[in-house]
Structure prediction request, 881 residues.
Amino acid sequence: MLIENNSFDFAEFQNPDAFFWNGHLWFWNDKLNDDELFSQLEEMASIGAKNAWIIPVPSEFRPESMPTNMKPGYLTEDYLRLFSRLVEKMGNLDMRLWLYDDGGWPSGGVCGRIVKENPHLIQKTLVRYEKRPLMGETVKIPDDCIAGFMFRNNDMVCKCESGEELTVDTSDCIIEIYSAEPDFAWVGRPLFPDLLNPESIRVFIEKTHEEYKRHIGQYFGNVIPVIICDDVKVTHMPWTDDMASGFFIDKGYDLTDCLPSLFKGTSKKDMQVRVDYFDYWSKRFAETFFETIHKWCAENGVAFSGHLGGEEDILGARTFGHGHPMRNYREFDIPGVDAVWRHIYPAVKNIKDKNDDHKKDNAGIFDWTGITDQHAVKNDHFPKFASSVAHQDGKKYSWIELFSAYGSDLTVEQMKWITDFCYVRGINLMSSCERYLSTKDFYMAAMRPMLFPGNPIWNYLDLYHTYSARASYLLGLGTPEIKAAVYYPIRDVWAGSPQMLRAVGQSLETLTSALFENRCDFDFIDDDMLESEKTVTGNGILKTGQMEYTHIYISKCEWITEKSLQKLNDFVSSGGTVITFENGLSVNNANFKNMDLSKLTANLNSIVGVEPANSPIRACKRRLANGNLYFITNEGLENVSCVLKFGEDKHMQMMIVDPENGKIYTPSEAVYSDNVWSYQTELSFSGSLFVLFSEDKQLYDKADLTHTRAERNAVKILNSNWLYRKSKAYIAGDHDFEVIEMPDEPYAPIDLGDWCINNNIEPSFSGEVEYLLRFECGDMDLKRVSSIDLGVVKYACQVKLNGELVGKRAWSPFLFDVKDRLVQGENILRVIVANTMANQYVHTDLATRWPENLTGFYNRICLKFEHDSVPSGLYGPVLLF
Prediction:
């Protein structure tokens, strides 16, 4: 069903199967008709967006904050017949559909229909109330509550049963009432069902999966390789009808006796109750929802995938309603995560409050501090939750949904940086947000970036899609070479107080960042994996599935299970290594080595050696049937010049595999000495490199291009005498976006740099500007010049020299081969530079034309981001080399 490749194949690399190509989340927010849908499909296919994630957005999804005009109605016969025609069209275009399982998100409620037709299935949340009665007052415990508790001076006096009456004989008494109440907190959204109740999942499958099967089941496993769920969760502090009895069977004590411990308390007993509660309901959630749908998909020949929410926050397991990300991911054929609101971003934004200005932080990941009521602790490596499960379960692929609500200032170069960030952490399939069926009127101010022809970066997305398709193919080959594992302290997350949680999260983040910064790749492991009978130890190895770990790292934690500790003891006894960081375990175990950060980093085994050692180079490795493949990326914000060192055999041939152009190079400057291959290279911002070592002679024969990293010497500096004219404008019209070809106005002088400064281009201009330069070349120049470097370009460009298209680029280096293209005498260089739509949002009334109940609050968030990419133009220096 899913593609299984273990050997590098040159032809497949050059033209990967449609399965590997990035695609767009396609929001159906307006009237559906074949002509418009087919036209948009063809547009996506034309730029290499060969997958589509159709997200139906029915009018009942968020009527008060994201109104839509989608017709015919969701899951009606007319809708399903149209859907069937669309899938057939996708097959004809050699596209793939990842079938989205609901109308809007989160998955599981069928836009409120389950609860509307079955009111008893509404999800329930555990609620705590306080009463402070006067002395002598008689208080009745409500008949419909779970239990009440009397406290005096913070000490529990007694448990009170529902319906019980008691007279208070003291003035310092507090009575706490605990009730399971329907969750109506989803203001302006359909009511959501109880996903801990198997009946809810049965109804969900009947209304969605079975209906799709009836109309398009013949496409399962071919045009439709995958069914996905989105942001699935239960309410915070979930409850279900048989929670107490189920908990008693599983844990052996009455949860209703301990309800106060779920909300407060720092004693060992309080924390144990919280651990048991989260452990019980998260296990039930995984089995009831994810396992049930996984089995249905397997029976019907289609893979199951999806993602949760809040994985980027170490506290997400408590506050986002999924309980335990890795536990749920194990029920996916393709585990997934998502990165929205700039969870991953170079030059990260930290929004202290939705109404405050943002500020810049270090490159890496979005800091959620202040956005939720909880104090979040970031997890830079959260994509590894999904990729680790995939590695350990022998699953080829893990997936990420990218760019939703990142803002219209997102550049293709930033898209590549973010994508490489995910690749090097084990993710190997990508999808991109957002494509809208309609962008008219208030839809113009919806979530963005909007990936459609009305966006200046649209004409450059084919570069990104081609790169990511080939990279996904490469990173789906073979098996990962990972020998280190990091224990994920999920039980401490469940147990802890806010102060304890921050300490646990920060310790984990410090440890994982230290490993990755030193190019020691790792997987996360958890108690479920350690306790599994499938996980065995011996000969210094902890083996689970295809993964064999020799080193286990444990950050600050206290709540690891006894069974997990025993497995780790067996591992150490067999010769394995367990290293604790910041007293990772409270138990006194002489077999575990405790190290401070400096000693720990000094003893790491790096996948790739790098000089200088402190460079922001990250790496991962995969073992192939016909070689070893390395992926190396620069996560810094500046260009990096470095020497890479690989511990590969001298009989191997070193080759550079370039997903941008589909070629293989044999680097003549690679040197083998002292059992190490050394290779000097320069990686720009967003730069990356695939290096393949192989003894496959047939593969080596394909690499008929020899690449030499020669020193470049500037022959000419072309920074002055530039002219310009605006060639194409992208504007927000009265009712929709418009693309306007500009008249051939006379060229005017322009300085390199921001085209709005000291020039006559208005700050609101989004579109393309054509730069023109006439320059002379002599006979010696023709012999010496091989390339032109445009320096800094904001943010994409195409180059024409003497009337011929040289090429186009959307990320650094903006370097173009011009060998044999120059002529003696006058040469005419044209550089067409495109910026983003951010200028239209920042410098017009576009983002504020409509009230938030029409645009959604995402508009406000995106607008804060969009100031970053307003500066536009050709900056240079422009050099002939």
